[in-house]
Amino acid sequence: MQHGYNVHANGIRQHLVRHSGPGPEMLLIPGITSPAVTWGFVAERLAERFDVHVLDVRGRGLSQAGDLDYSLDAMADDALAVIAAADLKEPVILGHSMGARIAIRAARKDASCLGGLILADPPVSGPGRREYPSKWPWYRDSIDMAIKGCSGADMRAFCPTWTEEQLALRAEWLHSCQPDAIKIAFDGFHTDDIHADLPHLGLPMRLVVAGGAPVIAAEDEAEIRKLAPHIETRTVEGAGHMIPWDDLEGFLAAVMDFECEQRNHEGVA
């Protein structure tokens, strides 16, 4: 069963789509240009085990946009405030790409309300590190096209491996991604240091690596394991950065058996 709802959290309207399941609760935070609705085909499968709430990150989808703070810290504060406002009980945060970085920063701020983190292919760029592999014009040009109005066929130039249904949904919703919100988040991939947060996290965590993408290399995975020695890692071989778009079953196999803790997951000070 699926339905959308709004809460007022961290001073703004936050929209979520719930895919009801048996539990534990999960807050799914998508990537930089993925409104909640675009994760529906994944969330409905995750709901076979989890009670899934998919967030429209501020400036995207049906959440509030406009003249707002679009920094990583603001988005992390949103996640924590949404958990409280929606009365989620120690949810697992499943974050993809930018959403994984939000999850890391939120857990650094306050891990006491969380049951664990599943970090799907987070960008490992940051101060003094290599650039994120995707370039800004890819985002800018596709959003501009969507704002003017485009078809799924038009979107194929940007996402050549996607199905017609996936392309049509992206063409329908990408216009809801406020351009300056996306630019600020993209720039933050290169200025925010999530690696400094990792040693402070003591709750259960799993890193899911897209084996066919250039986002997380072997040395990046090794560094993450050094910074957070208790983290589990799973690789979805051959999948691109949008892992479930390439291999849904592989993605589900990498996340569905995640075990979270309840009440015994205080972050390291």
CATH topology: Rossmann fold
Described by strand count, sense and barrel closure, the largest sheet is: 8 strands, mixed
CATH class: Alpha Beta
Provide the CATH superfamily: Alpha/Beta hydrolase fold, catalytic domain
* Contiguous runs where pLDDT drops below 50 for at least 5 residues: 264-269
Q: What is the SS-derived class?
A: alpha/beta
Strands side by side in the biggest sheet: 1-2-4-3-5-6-7-8
Q: State the shape.
A: globular
Percentage of β-strand residues:
15-25%
| Quaternary structure state of the chains depicted | single chain
Q: Per CATH, which architecture?
A: 3-Layer(aba) Sandwich
- What is the strand tally? 8
Number of domains: 1
**Total number of helical segments?**
10
User: Mean pLDDT across all residues, rounded?
Assistant: 96
